[in-house]
Each structure stands twice: as C-alpha cells, then as structure tokens.
Amino acid sequence: MRKLLIWLPLALFLAFVGLFATGLFKPDDRVIHSRLVGQPLPAFTLPAAASDRPALASAQFVTGKPRLLNIFASWCVPCAAEAPQLMALKQAGVEIDAIAIRDARPDVDAFLQRYGNPYARIGLDARSAVQMALGSSGVPETFVIDGKGRIAYQHIGDIRADDVPMILDRLKDAQ
Amino acid sequence: MIAEVGLAALWLAAALALLQLVLAFAGLKGGKPELLGAVRPAAVTQGILTAIAFAALITLFMRSDMSVLLVVTNSHSMKPWLYKFAGTWGNHEGSMLLWVTVMGVAGAAVALFERALKRDAHMATLGGQAAISLGFYAFLLFSSNPFARIAQPPADGQGLNPLLQDPGLAFHPPTLYLGYVGLSVAFSFAIGALLTRQVDAAFARAMRPWVLAAWVLLTLGITAGSYWAYYELGWGGWWFWDPVENASLMPWLAATALLHSVTVLATRDALRAWTIMLAVVAFSMSMVGTFLVRSGILTSVHAFAVDPQRGSFILALLALYIGGALALFGWRIGSVREGAPFELVSRETMLVVNNLLLTVILGLVLIGTLYPLMTEAFGHKVSVGAPYFDRIAGPIALALMVAMAAGPLTRWRKDRAGVVGKRLLVPIAIAFVVSISLSLFAWARIGILPFLGLVIAVAVGVASLAPLWKRKLLRTPLFTYGMVVAHLGCAVSLAGMACDSAFTVEKLVAARPGDMIQTAGWSIRFRQITPIAGDNWTALQADMDAGRGGRSVVIRPQSRFFASPPTTTSEAALLTRWDGQLYVVLGEEVEGGRWQLRIWWKPFVTLIWLGGIMIALGGALALVGRERRGWLMKWRAHNMTTEGVEA
Question: What keywords tag this UniProt record (chain A) (predicted)?
C-alpha cells in the first residue's frame, strides 16, 4: 500500500504530461461553428435598401437553388474590400442577396456605385434586428442558404480571394 | 555590443551550470571530493553572469536599441522611461531571462549564505539547482534568445501593450518571479536531501528561511497583481480565476502548506516524506504554471504568444524535472525513517489538517484550471469560471480559516480537546454575536458564503491574537509575532473579500455632463468631458465632483487611446476612504451626448490587499526572528568557547 502511494504522484504527473502533450499537438479548431446551421432562416420582411434593387423577405429563399445571403453595410471598410470577391462569385453564376445593416438608402446607393453591385435583392435592417436573429455579430458575414431556405454555412468576416473556391464548394454541397 | 555581452554572459552562465553539476556529481559520487571546493565559486559566478545578462537587456531597452528584435517588437522610443525599464520583462523572452536570473542569483545566495546544511547535502543541493538552471538556459538560448539582432533596424519599435503601461509592471512580475523561482531552492533542497538521505529536523531548519523568503515575495507579488488587475482592467473585480492567476495561486498554496509542514519537521521531526513531497510540488506548480502560460495551451486574459514549439520545450523540461524528482522520491523515500509520532489532539495534527485542506484546495484549483484541457482531449470545449472556484474552494478555505484559529492554541505533541475549546471560548462567543447582529441587520441581502466569511473573519481575527494573551509582550519571540501578524492578515483579507461581495453597490448609468448621480450615499456631479494628452496617449477625461455630505473631491476617470499599438484602455478613478473605495469607470459615448458610467462603492475592499501585505509582513518577521535567534545562539556559543580558551 505504502509502496503504491509513493509512486502515485509520479503516475498522476505522467498522466498530466500525456494530457498536455495531446493538448499541445492537436491542431486547435479556431473556426466558429454556427448553431443555426441546418436551421431554416428566421422569418423576416425587409424594405428595399437601394433604389434600383427590390426588397428582401425570407420566403424568397425557397427557390430550389442555393443562394448567398451577404450581410454588409456602406460604412464598413472590410465590406468594400470584399466587393471584388462577391463580383467574382456573381460572374460564376451565384445569386447573391444582401442585408444592409444600420444604413441609409443614399449611402447604400453610393457604396454600390463605387464598389459594384453583385446583389439581386437588398433588404434594409435599420436596427440590426434580423442580423441578431441570424446569429450574426458583425459585418461582413455571408450565409449559404440551400434551396429550401435553410442555413447551410456561415462565413464570419470578409470573403478573401482564396475563400472563393471554398464558398463555391459550399454552394455545390448545399444543392 | 551590449547585446553580444549579454548573450555571452548567458552562454558562460550555462556552461558554468553544467560545470557545477558535473563537479557536484563527481565530488559526491565519483570519489573525487577535492572537486567539491569549486562548486560554490561556480554557483556565485553563475549568479553574477545572469545578473550581467539581465542588466544588458535592461540597458538595451532603456536605450531603445532598435537593432535588437525584442526591443523592436516590445518597445517604443516615445515610452516613458519607467515603461522602457519595466518593459524588459513585459514579454516572453525578457520574462524568461528574469526567470533564469532569479534562479542564478538564488543559487548564488544558497552557495554564499547557507551554513546550516551539512557539506554533502549542501553540494547536492547546489548540484540540483544547477541541473534545473541548465534546462532553462537551454530553453532561453535555443528557443527564446532575448538578444537576437535584426538585419534592418526599423526607425522605431512597435510599442508595449498599453494594459502593461502601468507602474504595476515595475513591481508585480519581479516580486512574483522572485517567489515563484525562489521555490526552486526548496526543490533543490529536497533533491539534495533525497540524494544524501538526510531528511531530518536539521534539514528542515536549514530549508525554512529559504521557503519563508520565497513565500513572502510570492505573497507580495500576488497581492500586487491582484490590486493591479483591480484598478487597471476596470472591471471592479480583484480576482478572476484566470489560468494565469491560478498559476501563481497554486505554488502559493503549496508553499503555504510547505511552510507549515517544514515547521513540524523542524520542531518535532515528523512529516518527513510529506515535507519533501511538498517541496517538490511547490516548485513543480511554478513550472506547470509557466508551461500553461507560455505554451498558450489555455486561453487567458494574459494573452501571450501561442507557440507549440516553445510549449513542447517546456513540457520536455517539465517531464524531465518533475518526473525525475517524483521518481527519485519513489526510489529513495522508502529509506527515510518514519518521523516522530504524535497524538490526535496536538499542534502537529492541526498542521496536518492545514496541509490537507491546502492540498485539497490546490487539487481543486488544478483540476478546474486543467478541466477545459481534459474535456478538449475528448472533443468538447468548456470553460471553468469563477462560480466553480468560488463554490468549491470557498467553503474549504473557510474551514481552513477555522483550523487556523485553533492551531496556534493547541500544544505540540499532546493536548486535550476540552482545553483547546476553552481557549477558543472568546472567539466562539464573538462569532455568535456577530452572526446574530448580521442576521438582524443584513440577513436578506447577503449570500451564505459572504455571511460565513464575515463571521469567521471576525472570530479568527480575535483568535489569531490569542497566542499573545497573558504573555510578556517584550519577551515574546519575533517569530511568534510573525505568525500572529500573518494569521491576522488572513482574517483581515477575508473580511475585505466578504465585505466586497456582501455590500458592494454597483450603478450603471448613461449621464450627460451636468447630471447629478446619487449612489450609496455619494453624490457625484458629472461636470464635463475634456480631451487631454499624455506622453504616448490621448484620452477623454471626465471631470467629476464626488462627495458625501461634506466637501467634494475631484475625480477623473479616463478612456485612454494609445497609438502604438492602437488600443483603448480605461483608467478607473479610485477614491479611497477609510471605509471603502469609490470606483468610477468612464465608458463609451451613447446616443444624445450621454456617456456610460459605471460606479461602484466597495465597502472595506482595501482590507483584501492590506491583509495580503500583513501576511507577507508576518512571514518577514518570522524569517528575521528565526535567523536572529540563530545568529544570537551562534554568537553566544562563540563567546563561550573564546572565554573557555582564555580561562
């Protein structure tokens, strides 16, 4: 018994070393997984945010074809940086809708004039209500919505050039 | 040139550590005792060399030498001189250099000042110290060289994290490290004692001052860190159970247990194996803490670089040293005789209770800190926060306080429970009165833990003074005063914690300049917001008049913006009164020209840190008391022998 007790600290310590080693060498998962993935879009109807694009409602996502929902704002600098990638996606045949957060119509018009307009419809979310319901905490964010109106993927932050193939894959998977 | 001098000193120190280890080993085991004469000079020189290396790094920071990578990434020529100086250890490489410097200087101190230990145990201890140092030199030189130059020196540096730009940085890390790494001496003592099979009262008496000194500094470092976090982070809390805080608390818990068990070993020659185990555990906790902090394996508010390569280096050191020490323990402790026996009701038993409770708290804090890591190994991410630690460690800490009240009133070897109870009569009566009056006045408002905390704090405060009762105060030894002051400090600190959680009033308002805010008896007039500029920051400052009844005082909470690196920090305004602190934080501007203000009135919160300082002071008194007694005895013995010769 005493013999066992004497070696117990060493045994415990070695178990800790094993634990530390697994913690140290296991690649850390730094991607945030949205809880809303697999859930239907929350119901919303938003007024139009731009003068030359129609308004947006959640029902319009049930089209049988996956679409992107981009959360942006005219006052957001990373959103401007993201614009070329969205244009590239549009040219690849992707349909993109958008929600402008805490914005005003003239500002959105000016933003689209300057950075290009890849969107089919744009809704105005003046008080971030829909953004909150979507579980989005900032701009820009992009959701892949499958043909049945369910969220298939949430991308936090701007879409970089090397993210574009990944987004296309996600759209294909959502089919 | 200075960087090269520092690096050379560091390499030389590492070489000397290797030499010191080889000399001690060859001298003790290789049958060449004449080599032992060089061990102490090697240790002293090593200490001097590490100090030179550290001084070199400080000089580089003070001069803002932008050809050194570490200065570029962590300093800026516009910084005030104090932060250039303290910024030396406000980063990974610098703090590890501080670590080996403390270790080297502590080794030199053991070589110079340790007289009580037998020669072979002394040499084995110095060999142990050299062995530990060697690993950390390797870590510094191979994976964290603080003196690395860069080919293209930039015009200026990237600055120091603004949260660290505070006088607290000049004081908190060095004291904490002195304590943290000072425990390495106890570790080496334990190794030396195991190797030479000398675990006895004389060994304990030799080790005690080193443990005391490290413990005093660790206590001061933790107290300072807690106060710093309290006023700098602007959250009004004084302890967050953050992994890094736990990393400093765990060695403290082990060292506190060690301090008490070493006294049992020194006085009664009991608890031999246990004391050795604690000496190993205390410094092991320092190393585990460093590993947790430096590897980035746990997420923490003390954001240091995540670096698996450095992490695996420290893990290897950890496995080598702690594993080695525990294996040595298992191998050798069987040959250590059991110490002296004692009765169930005795001072020894009370100290064993103290040790057990401290160890249980240590275990629970360790599990809580590592639990996220354990679950992650099985695929879940969880975080363990304050509610766990408060609920689990709180009640045990209260039980510990009760044991602390009874311990000093119990006699060594054998006592009677009834007699101890009688000695505790006054504190128990006081606890009774306090709980009744608290129930009458404030029962509904405060939780059970703060309630018990207040009652126990008052009772233990009284009980801790009891050892002085009916004693001639001038003839009472200094170390008894040390114990009384330290125990009283625990009660004072507990009272502060309980008051803070029981009676703090918090108010969150959005106020316009000109508004008057009333809270907890204070009237605060928010006069205006003015922009101001400091050395390397600009700030928005709120001017307020705070008063209660009489004359009002101007307080100025700020929201500071630092340009390099771009960060905003909040500088809380603190108004200290004898019965508490007013704590005001300026938040962001909200709509309509109103500003978020967070105001706390924290009754008697300052007692927390006053208690911490008293605990450290008690330790210092005990240290001086014990050492002075040793000197006096030596001096008398010396006089007697010389008189004998003359006669």
Answer: Cytochrome c-type biogenesis, Disulfide bond, Redox-active center
